[in-house]
Specification:
The protein is α/β, with parallel strands linked by helices and 290 residues long. It has ten helices and eleven strands. The strands form two sheets. Strands 3-2-1-11-10-9-8-5-4 form a nine-stranded parallel β-sheet, covered by helices on one side. It has a two-stranded antiparallel ribbon with strand order 6-7. Strand 9 (198-201), helix 7 (207-221) and strand 10 (229-233) form a beta-alpha-beta unit. It is globular. It starts with a strand and ends with a helix.
Length: 290
């Protein structure tokens, strides 16, 4: 099993003036400690489960570009981009750029979008759920077309591209992996089976059933279920002195038994960086063989 850190907030002890330096310390420590992924949320306002919207939030891809220059091993992604936030052709260029400047370490993490408050606040169109998923599917089709070098016009219901040129191409082959976040059984997991290389699910009592639904969609699409990387959101809290690492290893082992290959999520007190070091020395080696 591989471990990833997601940074969901940017309210740091030193405030905005120290945020760049603090983020650099977190990124370098995670990379050196053996974390396989470094991720950020793709939001413009802070989300309610973490804090009020006024709390600090950095734009995701600018942040990942900064992190790319500070690291050399960890793969980089959003968990996850809302499909309405950027035009698909521009999103493909953004992820390609991240992939090129990071030496082939970019993923496209994407989902249907849910935060109407920030969209309305910043003037981003926020259509119905049905239309957002139509746009998500067209976005996936456009990104895949651009990554395979197909410059023929794209005519979709919501997007029309006269020449989907992508130069330079991504370094990752055949393209940056696509991770689709969410457990929607009718559309989201079907899109995973049809278009993606990975899914991301939140821990819940119905995790096993979600995987069964994904397997059924893979069967319907003629897709090998085992090709898809199963990732699960996970809160990492090793304790001040690492006293909780054994419990974490047990929990990660249970996820691995279900078929999850990656656990990615927030690390408690991440700005202190010591928790990252503890996870790197006490957890990552123990779960690497799961």
């Amino acid at each position: 099993m591989r471990i990833g850190v997601q940074i969901p907030e940017f309210t740091t002890p030193g405030g905005p003036a120290r945020l760049g330096a603090d983020l650099a310390a977190v990124a370098r420590t995670a990379d050196d400690a053996g974390f396989g992924f470094i991720a950020v949320m793709d939001h413009f306002f802070q989300i309610g489960v973490i804090g009020p919207p006024e709390r600090e939030m950095l734009e995701a891809y600018t942040t990942l570009g900064y992190v790319a220059g500070l690291t050399s091993r960890a793969e980089l992604l959003t968990l996850v981009t809302g499909t309405v936030y950027r035009y698909p052709g521009v999103l493909a260029k953004i992820v390609t750029t991240l992939d090129v400047v990071s030496g082939g370490r970019a993923w496209l993490g994407i989902g249907g979008a849910w935060n109407e408050e920030e969209s309305r606040g910043l003037g981003i169109p926020f259509p119905s759920v049905a239309e957002r998923f139509e746009r998500l599917e067209e976005t996936l089709q456009i990104c895949l077309r651009m990554w395979r070098g197909d410059e023929t016009p794209y005519q979709g219901k919501h997007f029309q591209l006269e020449r989907p040129l992508n130069s330079p191409q991504a370094l990752a082959k055949p393209h940056p992996p696509i991770l689709i976040g969410g457990g929607g059984e009718r559309k989201t997991l079907r899109f995973v089976a049809k278009y993606a290389q990975a899914c991301n699910l939140f821990p819940s009592p119905d995790l096993a059933r979600k995987l069964d639904v994904l397997r059924a969609h893979c069967d319907a699409e003629g897709r090998d279920y085992d090709e898809i990387v199963k990732t699960c959101y996970f809160i990492f809290d090793p304790g001040e002195r690492g006293e909780k690492t054994g419990e974490m290893v047990d929990q990660l082992g249970q996820l691995a038994e279900m078929g999850f290959e990656v656990a990615i999520g927030a690390v408690a007190n991440v700005w202190d960086v010591r928790p990252l070091e503890i996870i790197g020395s006490e957890v990552i080696p123990q779960v690497a063989g799961l």
